[in-house]
């Protein structure tokens, strides 16, 4: 094989005349250039550590401090007030004062950096600004705007990480009070009275004991929630992650940049690798609260690429590798390793297209057991773990599995056509969503941090594993990919990628397998197929109005949608239910999500008034109150005053201590019958919607996790004026 031949750097044979040594200079040159790339990355990481370590100052500011100190000493003034003279170094007299001054300047510089970082952390810990109404800013918030001065320097992706505050542990009394208020409209008077008694008993007895342990963890850990949330909500789940956990992202709604499958793959893979380069070099701008300079935690970016969830008997493990120079590709039941770097150089989009086309043209059939092997990642976790230990711990299977798991990401070259097309665009959109959510249950590798799907007609999409990050992080990646693909890289007139091709590139490497038994593969596939068949998806574009018109009414677009969903559920079911809306807590270090309990007393009052035929003015007033209440709930969740993560952690502590709490047990067993999520476009500047209004993504969605669970993935892709795309996934 060509790739095997080029991998040999030297050969030698022993003859009667001695040892005959033959060197492959081409292979050695490849090794040298790859080593240079590796060392460049190491130097870049060291440089970034230095820049981050002194932020919000700069490394060059040290020279400024030194020159200032030396200048004042030259003018016969002692800025150290005698401290320089007290610094004793074993030096010659000629350089004594100069070296003493350098030591003092460096210590002063470090002190200034610590002071600036303390001020920055203090400013980032202030969250009252989020509760203030537009045009009514307090004096404290006006002083707080000094944060802009400390954020004036161009930060790296992780520059703010050490300055972000830690997530606070709410007072247990406040959490219980907010919990009881959230369930009041859902319970009858006797049930509410009983729940109130359970809450009071919990607070007076076990609650304070558990709270002390939680506060101790908060003092020690960076975030008192995130590690337990990742482990117990995601990694310890033994049920399939397909549908239950993984979610999907969709392509442009109305346009397909090229109908050539290999070309779309070439540009998409290139755009993703360019994004990875930005992440590795920390060249991405830190995400911020829209319209402000407030940074959001970027920790979730660290495991975006080269990451795989590996199965275990009791818990899964997230494995992350520092780098990977290839991607794993699936096509018609075969797995390939596609190298995307050569001699330390990223292949051009045209070269990647050329390599992908080689895979598409490869006529070889799947090996025994290979075609449906991916079903192992779609079924239950314990059988996959057992299968992995038995058949994938050594030999050819281990090498091939390593190639998939160590890949930058996974690519499926799907032989179907998808998108809003043909005579049934609505039905095709539904099928498109289902395809991205679970595919054929064996043609995706659901364990990878994310998998890219390129369809036969050039349509694309994404399926992401949930444990390592939440949807906004993946949405940021996907927005960049779509925009770079369509507007930066582009295509030729005949739909191919731009650039030149080095036709001496080695062929993509076919992965080899030796699967002695396919019984478990078929068993996992049966479990996954039953789960996929039980899911109904409906996706539709809504263009009657968008957030622009909603804002003109001085209403929060999110509150508008959430109250609308409460009204829709009431009309469909004749009552209200516990409603889950995800809110981010990335104002805090390593923050992930918190629950906004969208079903409130105010929203229920509005719905009942509207359905009861109350006067229009009365309904308007109640709607305004419900909107304001929802905004306040969302803000409280964002600023660490939520309910559910605190109760979840108290429950985990109780399990560690081996004590039972009837209150916590009942709270955590309450079903979320309505789950909603929204991810607005974060990088609107990447899309020229004025000149290219059709280049808008439909967003994405997720699946139900129980028979009585109705997830509504409302993906607000809005041009700011009149368009809103909504995706719904319902069971």
TrEMBL record:
Write down the membrane topology: Multi-pass membrane protein
- The principal localisation class reads mitochondrion
> What GO biological process terms are annotated to this protein in UniProt?
carnitine metabolic process; fatty acid beta-oxidation; long-chain fatty acid transport
Q: Reaction(s) catalyzed by this protein?
A: (R)-carnitine + hexadecanoyl-CoA = O-hexadecanoyl-(R)-carnitine + CoA
Location(s), subcellular? Mitochondrion outer membrane
Residues of the Choline/carnitine acyltransferase domain: 167-707
Pinpoint the Carnitine O-palmitoyltransferase N-terminal domain residues.
1-47
* Gene3D superfamilies xrefs: 6.10.250.1760, Chloramphenicol acetyltransferase-like domain, Choline/Carnitine o-acyltransferase, domain 2
The cross-references to PANTHER family, in alphabetical order and at most eight, read:
CARNITINE O-ACYLTRANSFERASE, CARNITINE O-PALMITOYLTRANSFERASE
Name the family the entry cites. Belongs to the carnitine/choline acetyltransferase family.
This one is known as carnitine O-palmitoyltransferase
Natural source organism: Lates calcarifer
Gene behind this protein:
cpt1a2b
């Amino acid at each position: 094989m060509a790739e095997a031949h080029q991998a040999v750097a030297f050969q030698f044979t022993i003859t009667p005349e001695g040892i005959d040594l033959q060197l492959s200079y081409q292979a050695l040159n490849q090794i040298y250039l790859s080593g240079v790339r590796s060392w460049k990355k190491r130097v870049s990481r060291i440089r970034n550590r230095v820049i981050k370590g002194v932020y919000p100052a700069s490394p060059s500011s040290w020279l400024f401090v030194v020159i200032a100190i030396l200048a004042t000493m030259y003018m016969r003034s002692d800025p150290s007030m005698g401290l320089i003279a007290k610094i004793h170094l074993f030096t010659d007299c000629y350089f004594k004062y100069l070296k003493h001054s350098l030591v003092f300047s460096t210590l002063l510089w470090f002190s200034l950096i610590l002071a600036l970082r303390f001020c920055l952390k203090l400013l980032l810990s202030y969250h009252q600004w989020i509760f203030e109404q537009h045009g009514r800013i307090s004096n404290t918030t006006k002083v707080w705007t000094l944060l802009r001065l400390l954020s004036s320097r161009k930060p790296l992706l992780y520059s703010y990480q050490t300055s972000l505050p830690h997530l606070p542990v709410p007072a247990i009394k406040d959490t219980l009070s907010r919990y009881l208020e959230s369930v009041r409209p859902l319970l009858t008077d006797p049930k509410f009275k009983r729940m109130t008694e359970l809450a009071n008993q919990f607070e007076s007895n076990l609650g304070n004991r558990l709270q002390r342990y939680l506060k101790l963890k908060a003092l020690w850990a960076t975030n008192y929630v995130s590690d337990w949330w990742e482990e117990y909500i995601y990694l310890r789940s033994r049920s399939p992650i397909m549908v239950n956990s993984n979610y999907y992202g969709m392509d442009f709604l109305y346009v397909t940049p090229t109908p050539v499958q290999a070309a779309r793959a070439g540009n998409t893979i290139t755009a993703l690798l360019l994004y990875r380069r930005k992440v590795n070099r920390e060249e991405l701008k830190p995400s911020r609260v829209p319209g402000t300079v407030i940074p959001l935690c970027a920790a979730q970016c660290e495991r975006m690429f080269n990451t795989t969830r590996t199965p275990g008997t009791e818990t899964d493990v997230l494995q992350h590798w520092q780098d990977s120079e290839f991607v794993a590709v699936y096509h018609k039941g075969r797995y390939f390793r596609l190298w995307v770097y050569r001699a330390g150089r990223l292949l051009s989009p045209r070269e990647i297209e050329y390599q992908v086309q080689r895979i598409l043209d490869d006529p070889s059939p799947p090996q025994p057991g290979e075609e449906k092997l991916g079903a192992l990642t779609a079924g239950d976790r314990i059988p996959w773990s057992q299968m992995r230990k038995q058949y994938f711990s050594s030999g050819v299977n281990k090498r091939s599995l390593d190639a998939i798991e160590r890949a930058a990401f996974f690519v499926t070259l799907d032989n179907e056509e998808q998108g809003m097309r043909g005579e049934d665009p609505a039905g095709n959109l539904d099928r498109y969503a289902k395809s991205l959510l679970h595919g054929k249950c064996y043609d995706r590798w659901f364990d990878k941090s994310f998998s890219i799907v390129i369809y036969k007609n050039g349509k694309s999409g994404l399926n992401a594993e949930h444990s390592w990050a939440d949807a906004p992080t993946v949405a940021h990646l996907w927005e960049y990919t779509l925009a770079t693909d369509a507007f930066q890289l582009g295509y030729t007139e005949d739909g191919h990628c731009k650039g030149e091709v080095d036709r001496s590139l080695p062929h993509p490497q076919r992965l080899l397998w030796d699967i002695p038994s396919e019984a478990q593969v078929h068993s996992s596939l049966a479990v996954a197929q039953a789960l996929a068949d039980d899911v109904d998806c409906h996706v539709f574009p809504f263009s009657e109005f968008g957030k622009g018109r909603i804002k003109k009414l001085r209403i929060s677009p999110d509150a508008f949608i959430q109250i609308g969903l409460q009204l829709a559920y009431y009309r469909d079911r004749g009552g209200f239910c516990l409603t889950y809306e995800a809110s981010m807590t990335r104002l805090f270090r390593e923050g992930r999500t918190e629950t906004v309990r969208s079903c409130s007393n105010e929203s229920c009052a509005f719905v009942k008034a509207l359905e009861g035929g109350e006067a229009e003015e009365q309904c308007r007033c109640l709607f305004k109150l419900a909107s304001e209440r929802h905004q306040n709930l969302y803000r409280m969740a964002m600023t660490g005053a939520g309910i559910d993560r605190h109760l979840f952690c108290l429950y985990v502590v109780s399990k560690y201590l081996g004590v039972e709490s009837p209150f916590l047990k009942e709270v955590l067993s309450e079903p979320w019958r309505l789950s909603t999520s929204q991810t607005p476009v974060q990088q609107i500047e990447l899309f020229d919607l004025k000149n290219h209004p059709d280049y808008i993504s439909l967003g994405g969605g997720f699946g139900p996790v129980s028979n009585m669970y109705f997830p509504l993935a409302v993906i607000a892709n809005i041009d700011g004026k009149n368009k809103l795309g909504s995706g719904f996934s319902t069971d």
